[in-house]
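Batch manifest line 449
LIGAND: CU-O-CU linkage
JOB: complex structure
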Amino acid sequence: MTSQGGVLDLPLTAQAGPVSLAGRSAALYSYNGLVPGPRLEIRPGEQVRIRFANRLPEVTNLHFHGLHVSPSGNADNVFLEIPPGENQTYEFSLPRDHRSGTYWYHPHVHHLVARQLWAGLAGLLIVRGELDDIPEIRDADEEFLVLKDFGLDANGDLLMPDPTPQIMQGREGGLVLVNGEVNPTFRIPKDGLLRLRFLNASVARYYLLQLEDHPMYLIVTDGGPIAEPFELRELLLAPGERAEVLVRGERSPGQYRLMNLPYRRFNMGMGMMGGGCMMGGMPVSSDQPAVLATLQYKESRRSLPLPARLVPVTPLSEATGERQLVLGHGMMCMEGMEFTINGMTFDPERTDIVVKVGTVEEWEIVNGGGMMMMDFDHPFHLHTNAFQVVSENDQSPRFPAWRDIVNVPMGGSARIRIPFQDFPGRTVYHCHILDHEDLGMMAVIEMRA
Ligand code: C2O
Ligand code: CU
Ligand code: CU
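JOB STATUS: finished
ARTIFACT:
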């Protein structure tokens, strides 16, 4: 779905029912019958009007992840709740200077987020702008890869994770798909350029991507383009993260695999054994390399070089205020697990942070670990305003970039600088392992004019 005459206007229905997935029928939730949902494309300065209908048997809503738009009214307001059978028109306009990139939409009702994404709800939201007008980028082939895992039984019904430990870890499914397909093939032009746009739309699964015999040249992170292509051998995508890379068709024609390599995102100590809190089996997930997709060479009429320059990123040199956020967790065997920020679970009525529009703040986000010898990585996400990472585990990043998610590894920390621009209002920040978010690792920020 692309905008027409400066407006993107469409009906979007969240519904339950059979969807075709990986060549079979699955009982899922979908947008307009599609998993992933329809891809929406807009340009800076345009209007968006989504006539949303909730035909699910439960409450839901929409969030536009990564967009720099108003968090209030009927724009990107995560406090709206649309009851089953009701409709809501979402409307906002994209600022004229909005950065181009790969964004997405998904539900955001507290306690239901993990389950509704697990059931299939998520779609891409593409902003085409300055970057897309660079000649080499414009002429590159383009593919979109929505990475998402599913847990289905033999009848195609959703598997429901055990409360412990799968929900504490964050649920992962054994069926790891790209655009709802098993190992799809993408074509790369010989001597040409292929632009891959990745979204990790999984509830909890991390992807450590590697392309056989080909480096990937990073061009876009969560929050927009970087200044010049950056060569990567591996690309880590935490839940919610996006990245765009260019691949050069510089090898002998043939087939090359896109691999997902093992990544350890949590440790569960033996302290959990016994005492009525028995642990189940470890998840089968990320401990074996797996093939996600295949690149197949095709002929092309001309060769394309990598672009030398992309879009400049001005580093934020100073902050006017500082804060520290500590991500933690606790466990009560009878009541279950709680995940916290600065010791507190989410309360939509409480405002945890008040900032002034027009300021730049520096936040230190500390992975505080927790009880019972358990440790998790936490991908930290902020709505409305993108940020720049100043340091990760005291190391400066290799290049300045705009992001809306930073992974805070086990035992580690990250410092970020956030410009609070236009848009006053209340919104949230949280862990994007959606089970952690639903178990309380989320809080409220108010931006005051
Ligand atoms: Cu994808 Cu609150 O976020
Ligand atoms: Cu978001
Ligand atoms: Cu987390």
